[in-house]
Amino acid sequence: MKYRLNKNSFVRKIGDYGYIYSQLTKHDRNYDSAGAVFLNALSRKPQEFEEILNKILPVFIDPPVELIKSDLSAFLEDLAKDNYLTKGETAEECDKNELLFSYDMENAKTTTYNYLQNKEDLERFRDTTEIFFEEHHKTPRVHACQIELTNRCNERCIHCYIPHELKNKILPKETVFKVLNELHEMGTLGLTLSGGEALCHPDICEILRKARELDFSINLLSNITLLTDEILECIKEVNPSLVQTSLYSMNPEEHDKITQLKGSQQKTLRNLERLIETQVPVQVSCPTMRTNFRSYKKVLEWASAHRCKAQTDFIMMARTDFSTDNLDERLTLDETKQLIEDMLVADVDYGEYIEEYKPRTDIEKLKEEPVCGVAVDNICLAANGTYYPCSGWQGLAVGTVDQHLKDVWENSPQLKMLRNIKKKSFPKCLSCADKDFCAMCLVRNFNESGGDMLKINDHFCKVAHLNKELVLNKIKK
Q1: How far apart are CA 402 and CA 293, in angstroms?
Q2: Exposed, middle or buried: residue 74 (CB in 10 Å: 0-12, 13-18, 19+)?
Q3: Residue 37: phi, psi to the nearest 5?
């Protein structure tokens, strides 16, 4: 029997743990050091059982060969059963037996809210989130990276956090390839390619193919209005985890008022349908603001009818140059209340999330948690060749593309400083009754305060309190 990794499966080493992730199901597993050896022997090329066994045997000294053979057989069959591996008598049979993404799948990932380990795996394997928390804080790793290929964009969205006058940069293909190679060396798993508008980059297809060659799980962020037949074929070929796009309203005039590009809604909808017809997994983002806060339900209904997700974010961020005129579109508290009430009825995923809600009581553990993953497990490269903690935090440079990313990650004074920012840095928040419903974020603080990441805007606190009241009332009912 031959075995090979599914095209949607990715293997990495996280400390002493072996880690396997499926972008097909969004499930993952972690194994101890012995299991890590087994994972490391897998390949994207079909291998006979004996070939895999011979890779493993030199690592183990004491266990009898028959025991190792038995364990390996069970290991491979278990992974094949859950579609981490594909198997067959021949390479052709492996290809035939491989489960690939389709919108006709019973549990298509585009309809799934909970991307954590399934219940059966949680009974057999340690929780991956716990392992990542321990390992990434012991030794920070670039688990995921976002690269803004260009900040040029054919739309001029009224809420965008990048000042429009700065949208004139393109990262050279050679620079992107350099960074992709460095990420590959560092064992990075997740790669997000974005803009500006990513499809504005003249070498977008070459970059996508390079990312696939280096075995990343790829997310593409795009308004997809510039999607051509050639780019669509390339996207299908590289098998991304998701293509994420924004659809602000089913009303063309409302959507186009936000993008300030006439006809953009019709192009976005048409190209969404093309991606879905081509079996490319998509996810719809519907940032909600004053112009469209009544439109979220209609977008949700469209997405549901097409078996893809629509998610909203109603807490806007000031621009990276500290200007705040885009926040004129931020929802008022009354509008936020109406939106959350709609979400509690219309958004099935949000309803399932609150049904499982349990208050955080482990305050001592909470104190040591980071506010988010910046400087701990992810980083962003902007189109100007500067590394930032995340895509929105372009007022705090942490390095440049002229440096090796490993040097930036390990030696940047700014990143070292950020790693010391924990939830205990906000003592009032630890004792706040609304903390479980808070969307506080360092970069939102930074951009809106003129550069003070520790200064929380009162608006976020009011929204957290409102969210808690509405959710608890829903649970009570």
Answers
A1: 43
A2: exposed
A3: -65, -45
Q: 139: buried, middle or exposed (CB in 10 Å: 19+, 13-18, 0-12)?
A: exposed
Residues 433, 468: contact at Cβ < 8 Å? yes
Nearest one of 198, 182, 192, 190 to 215, comparing CA atoms: 190
Residue (of 190, 181, 152, 161) closest to 401 by Cα position = 181
- Rounded to whole angstroms, the Cα distance separating 144 from 364 reads 28
Give every CB contact of residue 398 below 8 A, 6+ residues apart in sequence: 375, 379, 387, 388, 389, 408, 412, 414, 415
Positive/negative CA dihedral, 85, 90, 91, 92: negative
Q: Can you tell me which residue has the tokens 């393109």?
A: 170
The span from the CA of 51 to the CA of 32, in Å, is: 22
Q: Tell me the C-alpha distance between 174 and 385, whole Å.
A: 12
Q: What does the angle CA 222 – CA 224 – CA 230 come to, to the nearest 5 degrees? A: 110
Q: What is the pLDDT of residue 68?
A: 94
- The H or E element containing residue 112 is none
* Contact by Cβ (8 Å): 243, 276: no
Report the alpha-carbon distance of residue 401 to residue 35 in Å, rounded: 36
Least confident of 109-123, 205-219, 314-328: 109-123
Q: How far apart are CA 56 and CA 34, in angstroms?
A: 10
* pTM for the model: 0.95
Residues 245 and 223: their CA atoms lie apart, in Å, by 5
From the centroid of its chain, how far is CA 323? 27
What is d(CA 84, CA 77) in angstroms, rounded to the nearest whole number? 10
Beta bridge partners of 388: 380
| Pairing between β-strand 386-388 and β-strand 378-381 as defined by DSSP bridges | antiparallel
pLDDT score, position 114? 56
